[in-house]
Amino acid sequence: MKVVNRDNQLDNYLWILPALAMFLVFTVYPFYKVLQLSFVEWDGITPHVKFVGFKNYINILFHNKIWWVSVLHAGFITLFALTVQNFFALMLAVLVDRGVRFGNFYRLCYFLPPMLSGIVVGIMWNLVLNADGLLNFLLNKIGIHSKIAWLAEPKTALLSVAVIHIWKGFGWAFVIFLAGLQSIPRELYEAADIDGATYKQKFYYVTLPLLVPVLVLVSILTVLGTMQIYDIIVTTTGGGPGYHTEVPFTQIITRMTGTSQFGYACAMGLIFGIILLVVSMAQLLVSTIKNKYQV
Amino acid sequence: MNKKGLLIILCLCLFNFSCRKIEDKNKIVVWHWMSDKEEVFEQLAKKYYEQTGTEVVFQLFAPSEAYSQKVKTAAQTKSLPDIFGILGDKRDFASFVKSGYVLNLTEYMNANNKEWLKRFFPQAIAVNQFLKDNEFNAPEGIYGVPIDVTTAQILYNKDLLSRVGINEKNLPKTFDEFIELGRKLKEKGIPGFVSGWGEIWLISTFAQSYAFNIMGFEKVMDTFKGKVSYTDPDWIKVFKIFEEMKKVDLFVPGTITMINKVAEQIFATNKAAFAFNGSWCINVYRQFNPNLNYGVLPMPKVNFKNSIPVWGGPGNSFFINANSKNKDKCVDFLKWLTEEEQQKFLAENTGNIPANKSCLKYIPAISKSFVKDLLNNNTFHPNTLPVSELPEVYLAFGKAIQSIITGEKTAEQAAQEVQEAKKREMNRLK
């Protein structure tokens, strides 16, 4: 009997072996390698590396102002996405869930931008936001004379990038919210109707509480997706003007491919990973506390 | 049975992964990033096969950032192809050489009374060469084969300038005249100057030309060595150039975050009087607007005591893998590729200026205007300077100029910012 069990166990291990091997090769090993490289000075070419201990980390954390500015920029875009993007996505999802006319058409329209590559979106928005672009054309049509190159002005560049990002990411949030809304049992709304609840009351006391797990999911995905913004920046501003649209990913890539500081870039990547982990954990914690409070 | 089957499959997989690729002795693999030359390279490879029986496989990896990363990764895993290009600064190039990845071509170049070497512009060779006791401690020698050359110049739109009474005979010669012309253009509502200054290297290149003009070669080198501060009055003058250009509203809106492709389109469609661009633009402009009427404006000087060198040297170069089994075949192929006939073919089909000097007779007049400075030895290239600026400082330099153009910083503040970056980097590298 024991022999049969061991045999079964071996079978099980064999079946998970390919997945385990893939995980080890493509996740664990690269992570270990990044960790290892973050403690060295290396240009990514020579076989020789120089161990520098925590020097890269100390430099990033205490002497690299631009790094923290870039984290703040990503934070600003994330905050914008968390509030504006998710608010509108939720509102529109509620409308479509209520069976508004042409609901399927809206679903398609809202989901088109996320399907496009960031590069395409960036190039397209360049045409909208440059000095002779569509936005200035429309503003001039309504009597507001504008010759602003929105992506090249220090005061508008970051906000413009945030708007482009929201336009692209809006569809994801919309679809997830819609799926969440459709999973709420209709009987609850019927019961609320019988109790004489208004639409606002139904939204606050039925929809929102049941949507908390979806809200948490969307928030985490928004934070993770937005903090890692890169392609749109590269095609619209390149991190400029000056450092006004630098984000952590542009900093990491510049160190890796531009100035050949592989070790430094790896340390930046790890610090950034920890920041993302902390933010995501905080979000999860807040939602758990909120759920307990509601119970 | 299931277990045995699974084990056999796993073993086969492992065996397959561990098998090394068998190298074909009659085949040369070339990696490059030049998407505009892909078709021309294919045609040349076909011709070479017909002539020699050696198959040349050009493999394109674009964009250039992805290519650059691929080559570095291949170097680490010792899987570089027979011939490849290196993108990056001289530091990267030196690392490739010091690691033994690149074949030293000095002997081949010097053979037969330097027959191969004599084909090229000296500046194009200099970029691919390490002199004795160089700052990177790379072994002395010539390591790359240039296939074309380039310079960056200020270009002007003849039709737009004629509206303010400027023609080839009365072009601005001094920087003050250039600024005055910018003022006139503004009054007439003609958009002024465009360039892809979202790309840091292009903005820094422009500024460095003026740095050489204002303070001379030695002082620029001393700055790179850390002996002269960026807050020196001469460097302030360099930064002031951009302040002056900003004051007369010379820049087309968006220039500082613009990628060069967009800037090229703007100039080609008569939406800017001036552009700053490399000689590759000839082909680009021709594609956008074959009737574009433009010329090269020699960079207007600030200081007449010094020359004003323009950025220039090789456009693209190829390197041979020192560990390739087909080294001699690779040398033969690159010799063939840089012969007059192939260089003429490349020049005619890509619009680039050939690296082979004897082909100059085939290039159009506008290309000749770009080559003039190469022939007069009035060029510089960061990779041929005896001292290189630290990459982080180079980046901060470009960003600081962007801040001047946006009006956020004065020349003095920008200079201070660059000097701080210099100090920080020097401390970091101590």
Give your account of this protein's structure.
The complex is a heterodimer of chains A (295) and B (430). Chain A is mainly α and 295 residues long. Chain A has one domain: Orthogonal Bundle (MetI-like fold). Chain A is built from twelve helices and two strands. Chain A has a two-stranded antiparallel sheet with strand order 1-2. The longest helix of chain A is centred in the first third of the chain and has 36 residues, at 2-37. Chain A is globular, with a radius of gyration of 24 Å. The mean pLDDT of chain A is 89. Chain B has 430 residues and is of the alpha/beta class. Helix content of chain B is 49%, strand content 13%. Chain B contains 18 helices and twelve strands. Chain B has helices at residues 2-18, 38-52, 64-76, 90-98, 106-114, 122-126, 158-162, 175-187, 200-215, 217-225, 233-247, 260-268, 281-288, 327-337, 340-350, 365-375, 391-406, 411-429, and strands at residues 27-32, 55-60, 83-84, 129-130, 141-142, 144-157, 193-194, 274-278, 294-297, 310-320, 353-354, 379-380. In chain B, strands 3, 6, 7, 8, 9, 10, 11 and 12 form an eight-stranded mixed sheet that branches. In chain B, helix 9 crosses helix 17 (391-406) and helix 17 packs antiparallel against helix 18. The mean pLDDT of chain B is 90. Chains A and B meet through helix 1, helix 2 and helix 11 of A and helix 1, helix 3, helix 4 and helix 17 of B.
